[in-house]
Amino acid sequence: MPALSHPTDDHGDQGGAADPVADAAALLHPRARPARRIGLGAAIVLVVLAVGVSAWWSATSSGGGAHGTVTVGVASDEPVALAAEPPLLVHVLGAVARPGLVELAAGSRAVDAIAAAGGLAADADPAGVNLARPVTDGEQLRVPKVGEVVEASGAGGGAAAGGGAGDGLVHLNTADVAALDTLPRIGLALAQRIIDYREANGPFASVDQLGDVAGIGDAILSGLDGLVAL
């Protein structure tokens, strides 16, 4: 029988000569495909990590904002702390250790004003002052000596102290700053000097003694004729 012919194998027999180009393509082709698979997997992992980091950062930022809100709330309390009442300015004179102006906290009483002026003098008459009464801003508080009768005076109490017996004259030994300030050419500064002189030297013995007060000359003194008395 004639011998059967077999189709020629594209790759040849094992014993045949190998095609170097085909062998090289066979070696390179399987390696290229896994490399692409590995690159795609790494990209997916990176995307997942990026999403996770973004979510964590958003949560952290939201938490920081909450803390910031608390800080602002604390700062808003500061104006409330600053809303304090203004101090009182009281003029304490008479039988106290240090006559003059004293600054007191709101709600203070006469006893606080006297304490701020150094306390009662040795010849003071505590019964002549209501130590428990509240004082007001701009008030003049006089502490009498034992046996001395003083007209009550308060905030703007110049009329009571300066009016005396109602004769329309300003009485030098009892008048306060407000009463003395009503006299011609006697302002607040000179009125305070008159009171300081009186506290340091005792009651005036005569109207002419006003000339001993610094700043009061003959011209001012002559203008007070008929307006003042002891």
What do these coordinates show?
With 230 residues, this protein is mainly alpha-helical. Among the domains are: 81-150, no CATH class; 158-230, Orthogonal Bundle (DNA polymerase, domain 1). The chain is 43% helix and 9% strand. The chain contains seven helices and five strands. The chain has helices at residues 20-75, 78-82, 110-116, 158-163, 177-180, 188-201, 218-223; strands at 88-94, 100-104, 140-143, 170-171, 228-229. A three-stranded mixed β-sheet has the order 2-1-3, with helices on one face. A two-stranded parallel ribbon has the order 4-5. A hairpin with a 5-residue loop joins β1 and β2. The longest helix has 56 residues, at 20-75. The chain is rod-shaped, with a radius of gyration of 52 Å. 18% of the residues are buried. One of its GO terms (cellular component) is type II protein secretion system complex. InterPro entries: Endo/Exo/Phosphatase_dom_1, RuvA_2-like, Soluble_ligand-bd. Keywords: Membrane, Transmembrane, Transmembrane helix.
Strand order of the largest sheet: 2-1-3
Identify the CATH architecture of the domain at 158-230: Orthogonal Bundle
> What overall geometry do the principal axes of the alpha carbons give?
rod-shaped
- Total helices: the number is 7
CATH topology of the domain at 158-230: DNA polymerase, domain 1
Which class of secondary structure composition applies to the elements? mainly alpha
Q: Output the radius of gyration.
A: 52 Å
Identify low-pLDDT runs: 1-16, 64-72, 152-165
User: What characterizes the major β-sheet?
Assistant: 3 strands, mixed
Rounded to the nearest angstrom, the distance between the terminal CA atoms is: 173 Å
- Percent range for β-strand residues: 5-15%
